[in-house]
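Work Package 4 report. The design task specified in the project plan requires that, given a folded chain encoded as structure tokens, an amino acid be chosen for each position. We show below one input record used in the internal validation round.
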């Protein structure tokens, strides 16, 4: 924790002014301080813009997929890849780099948000509290990001520190902070999200910024995780009712699921399904571009010119996802929208080797610039935009402008259906069925007339596959159910002759439901090795 303090203090003077085109694409400023800066909405928006981007870079790089999808079993093919192995095998150690990446990014995001919250409060005091609506909005936006960060921390690590003001950690000995109970971490997240809901507008002034209903929707997700079904249903219904009323046309399901994940324009511009996403720009490269393509794209798609990059296929869809009995049903259109397999073709994906459009070809029995031969003979299609072209920039080092969806309207619909079901064995509630079937029907599937927990969990699995979230759906079922789900998953791969090398992972203890606190943190803060204590007295 201590090694992040200097960075967090620096956050006070490193934010920039946003231009009207994109709140990430901005000119820099020199030495802003509370006295001479944050005098208008543009300056505040420039500061909050970074909370959607660079602070999450280390987590999004590989940990995002490792935690949500490798643990969840929706991706595989990573045996022998040291960066992913421990997640693939459920043999995660406190020294693993991706554990540290997750911890550091979440606390970096939470810390920068906390610094901004305090900075904007100080500025309000300097201005005497008059004409400060733009600062109130900035505070609400920062509290949303901090709330999400602590929600992710609570789900991922369980008991964890809460740092309301990181500047307090600069005091002698103050960086020795304890772990607080997970319930307190999640309560802290809910308080931030409620404050965000109270202070954010219904409609964002710029595409991609969070709104009142993004905060309410995220609260619904936290309540569902806590099994507080009454509050989860109530919050989700507020979002759904808004989408049917004043928000009709502003909020709802995107008609083109595939484009939402393969076109940065469709994903970023007036995407009514997006409630909260991380925002990336290809031009920012390693400082803020989306690098998922580097790890997930097939080599023959992005290695030949005009991109000239790399696609390592380090993570690929698992056989558990590809099997119609456990993953995408035969009639489920999301398979074709989310996965590339033999014969897949896109006319717009043109490179030197595929002048009439890219065709996914596994017949070469090895990967080169013409053929692809992964362990499951497939690749993830979500978040892959194809080769570099005028309307879809992809840098030679593989960065794109695709966002990373954290909360979609589809999630709110399925949250509502599950919350109405609650602990019952099944439900035929009309509202729950309507919400569920909107998501189900978009995928070309026939409406259900009753719902069970397994129906909803399966729908979440195929709807949000490769979006870094399914592990938490498994985890929140409790150890016994999670153990059963994981044991049933096929995580193996095919050899060169097409023979399956089966692998079934094993959960041995409830402790494996959470990541360990990084050893580097416990070495500097031994209190983190002690039992958790109460944050709220």
């Amino acid at each position: 924790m201590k090694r992040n303090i200097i960075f967090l203090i620096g956050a006070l003077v490193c934010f920039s002014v946003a231009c009207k085109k994109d709140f990430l694409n901005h000119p820099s400023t020199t030495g802003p301080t509370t006295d001479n800066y944050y005098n208008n909405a543009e300056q505040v928006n420039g500061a909050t813009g970074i909370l959607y981007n660079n602070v999450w870079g280390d987590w999004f790089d590989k940990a995002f997929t490792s935690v949500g999808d490798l643990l969840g079993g929706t991706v595989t093919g990573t045996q022998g890849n040291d960066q992913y192995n421990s997640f693939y095998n459920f043999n995660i150690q406190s020294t693993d780099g991706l554990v540290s990446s997750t911890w550091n990014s979440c606390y970096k995001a939470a810390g920068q948000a906390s610094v901004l919250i305090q900075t904007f409060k100080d500025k309000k005091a300097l201005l005497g509290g008059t004409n400060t609506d733009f600062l109130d909005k900035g505070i609400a936006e920062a509290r949303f990001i901090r709330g999400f960060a602590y929600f992710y921390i609570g789900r991922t690590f369980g008991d964890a520190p809460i740092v309301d003001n990181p500047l307090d950690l600069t005091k002698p000995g103050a960086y020795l902070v304890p772990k607080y109970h997970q319930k307190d971490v999640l309560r802290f997240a809910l308080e931030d999200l409620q404050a965000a809901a109270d202070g954010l507008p219904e409609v964002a002034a710029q595409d991609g910024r969070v709104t009142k209903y993004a905060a309410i929707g995220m609260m619904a997700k936290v309540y569902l995780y806590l099994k507080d079904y009454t509050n989860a249903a109530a919050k989700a219904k507020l979002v759904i009712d808004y989408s049917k009323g004043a928000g009709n046309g502003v909020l709802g399901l995107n008609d083109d699921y595939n484009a939402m994940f393969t076109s940065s324009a469709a994903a970023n511009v007036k995407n009514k399904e997006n409630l909260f996403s991380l925002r990336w720009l290809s031009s920012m490269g390693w400082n803020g571009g989306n690098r998922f393509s580097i790890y997930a794209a097939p080599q023959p798609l992005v290695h030949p010119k005009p991109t000239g990059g790399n696609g390592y296929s380090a993570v690929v869809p698992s056989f558990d996802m590809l099997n119609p009995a456990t993953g995408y049903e035969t009639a489920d259109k999301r398979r074709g929208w989310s996965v590339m397999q033999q014969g897949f073709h896109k006319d717009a994906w043109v490179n030197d080797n595929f002048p009439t459009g890219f065709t996914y070809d596994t017949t070469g029995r090895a990967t080169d610039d013409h053929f692809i031969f992964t362990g499951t003979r497939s690749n993830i299609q979500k978040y892959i935009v194809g080769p570099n072209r005028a309307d879809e920039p992809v840098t030679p080092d593989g960065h794109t402008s695709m966002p990373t969806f954290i909360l979609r309207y589809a999630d709110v619909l399925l949250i509502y259906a599950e919350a109405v079901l609650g602990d019952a064995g099944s439900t035929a509630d009309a509202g729950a069925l309507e919400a569920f079937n909107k998501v189900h029907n978009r995928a070309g599937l026939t409406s259900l007339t009753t719902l069970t927990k397994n129906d909803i969990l399966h729908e979440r699995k195929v709807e949000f596959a490769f979006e870094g979230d399914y592990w938490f759906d498994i985890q929140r079922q409790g150890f016994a159910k999670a153990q059963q789900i994981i044991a049933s998953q096929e995580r193996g791969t095919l050899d060169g002759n097409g023979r399956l090398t089966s692998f079934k992972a094993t959960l041995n203890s409830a402790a494996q439901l959470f990541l360990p606190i990084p050893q580097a943190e416990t070495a500097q803060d031994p209190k983190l090795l002690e039992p958790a204590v109460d944050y709220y007295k």
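Residues 122 and 262 are 42 Å apart (CA to CA). Validation will be extended to a larger panel in the next phase.
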